[in-house]
Each structure stands twice: as structure tokens, then as C-alpha cells.
Amino acid sequence: MKVYRSGRRSGKTTDLIKESARGGGYIVCANLNEVSRIMSVARDMKKDIPMPISFYEFLNKKYYSKGIKSFLIDDADELLQSLTDVEIDSITITV
Residue 33: pLDDT above 90? Predict the structure, then answer.
């Protein structure tokens, strides 16, 4: 698992778009507005990617898993925080 770690507006989503175009992984993002934004950025970059899915679709398994090679999670911290109203202070990641 790759982890892209940097500040806001530093190109993390752009990196995921490139990775999605290379390997066909589906980007999972916060909401439908982000789905549209990511598709627009990918078009501007001339990258062909699968339609991203929202956190809601991901968490509720509203996707056809047999057609998906992998997931690329955009803003994983937001995804985790969406699971609870209590602030998540720290996480660990095994690489």
C-alpha cells in the first residue's frame, strides 16, 4: 500500500489520478461533488480513469466488486473521521 502524505493542494489527488489511469484502480472520495471534480481534473490531464465513488458508496458497498481491481482512497483521514462524531487523534498504518 502506497501512502501519499503532504499538505493541502500539494498534488495528492493528481497522483491518485495518474495511478488510477495506470492501473485502473477506483478512486474513493468524500462526496459526489468530489467525484465530479476528480473527473474534470482527469479530463484536463487527458487521463482515462474509472468513475470515482463516494465514501457513502464505499462504506455501504454500493459498487460491483468483481469489476474493481483496487481502491485508491483520497483523503483517508476524512473517510475515517466520517465514521464517528468523536475526533480521531491518531492512527497507525502498517506498510
Answer: yes
